[in-house]
Amino acid sequence: MAFDSHLPELELFIEKADKLENSGFVKKIKEEFTLDISIDLTREDPLNIRSIRPNQENIDAFILTFRFFIQDNEATSIRNLQKFFDSEFVTIEEKSKFNAARSNLNSFLSESTNLTFKDENISNQMLMDTFIYGGLSHAKKSKKEKFDLWMSRDDAQEFFWHKFSIVIFTVLQLIQYIKNMLLTVIARNKNA
Questions:
Q1: Its domain of life (predicted)?
Q2: pTM of the predicted model, to two decimals?
């Protein structure tokens, strides 16, 4: 198979990665992203939570594009890119770096968020999937029920939104890393 046959999916990956990098979500994360918690026992409601994060419109727009990288029905999904990185168009070092990046991503997603709800320890993957497929872009029944349960607690909502933002921003960093690898691979193979 000729290298040119891979170009559309690789260029789409780069285009969508650029779109995420220039999104309002990323701008807000970089400008000001905080979660402050204070407890004042002299007040009737002692817990005070102040959160500055991307607004709902920023998050929704980001997720619409972000799904290109996490859904296996997309040629641009990180999992589907494995086929390209197994091809003769990448060096052994590039393949190794890609495999290490995917492994690091999977390890990160399996880690705990350090959030628990009703005695359930929540992993980064569970948090991301529940938000995306239960609250933001789909409504799979079990994930929707879990998302609604998490959001039913006013004192917990901002913790979940804050951690979700961190998780998807961390995944974006891997997407940016892969994009930069693809730019190198494309430049080398176009000149070959």
A1: Bacteria
A2: 0.89
